[in-house]
Amino acid sequence: MTQPPSRRSVLSAVVNELVQVNAVVARRPHSRPMPSRDTIVRTVESLRSVLFPGYFGESELEPDSVRYYVGNVLDEVRRTLREQVMRGLCFNCGEAGERCDQCEGRADEITAAFLTRLPEVRRLLATDVQAAFEGDPAAKSPDETIFCYPGILAITNYRLAHELHRLDAPLIPRIITEAAHSATGIDIHPGAEIGEAFFIDHGTGVVIGETARIGKRVRLYQGVTLGAKSFPLDEHGNPIKGIDRHPKVDDDVVIYSGATILGPVVIGRGSVIGGNVWLTQGVPPESRITQAANIAEAFNQGAGI
């Protein structure tokens, strides 16, 4: 009678299979590790505490200690972010070894440039907070939107990630926006361009694609998709990267829940797109787009079906 394989031999066989190089899921040999998602998420929370001091992080700040607190947190962010950016750069460049001087220098440049953009990020977020307060009659104060609204959390992550995306920091921008996606259900690609006073109400299920362009004072509701209509393929049948394929939404547009807008179309300034509308073509300024009117009919014992 054949003896069944031992638990140890089964485990050994599984381990041998899993450590084999896979064409898709495989890391090249590097002495430096890849960026740490957990570290990046903690760094974003630290940045949130300096963008909104007293709201997040140390909540018992005295006025005289705010400057010290912000400086201390930013110094830690600088060192941590530089290391994570360098890991991403080294992984992309493919150079194995103890050091990569080119990546270290570039990490210094990206980190410094990112930190200098934080005041502008703070200015934009202040307009987003005000837009959330003014746009939602249920909001009792701007403070409530900062503390509680998933849209503000997702937009904060996006605005930080967008600056790193503009600086060509690899991997980290997507980690930041996907962390917000996981927490809120709001999926904003860091490559999207979004103007000031942006408000996402409720937010669950919102998708904003990489090449989307959104103007000032735009308001979205839950379930809105600004996506791609199709993906042009290369000669090998693979999607062509980096082409313009998402909507352009001009200033002062409102898009209601469940609306889907696909392709590089333009939604003109001041337009209102109704709930559950499906659009694959642009509309002129001041448009009002709604679903076809429902028709109510009386049915008697199945007549008319």
Structure report:
Helix content is 41%, strand content 10%. With 305 residues, the protein is an alpha/beta fold. The chain contains eight helices and 14 strands. It starts with 6 loop residues before the first helix and ends in a 16-residue tail after the last strand. The protein has two domains: 27-186, serine acetyltransferase, domain 1, CATH 1.10.3130; 205-292, UDP N-Acetylglucosamine Acyltransferase, domain 1. The strands form three sheets. A five-stranded parallel beta sheet has the order 1-4-7-10-13. Strands 3-6-9-12-14 form a five-stranded parallel beta sheet. Strands 2-5-8-11 form a four-stranded parallel beta sheet, with no helix packed on it.
How does the SSE layout of this entry go?
Elements lengths: L6 H12 L18 H15 L14 H28 L7 H16 L1 H18 L6 H7 L1 H17 L5 H13 L2 E2 L4 E2 L4 E2 L6 E2 L4 E2 L4 E2 L4 E3 L20 E2 L4 E2 L4 E3 L3 E2 L4 E2 L4 E2 L8 E2 L16
Parallel strand pairs: 1-4, 2-5, 3-6, 4-7, 5-8, 6-9, 7-10, 8-11, 9-12, 10-13, 12-14
Helix pairs in contact: 2-3, 2-8, 3-4, 5-6, 5-7, 7-8
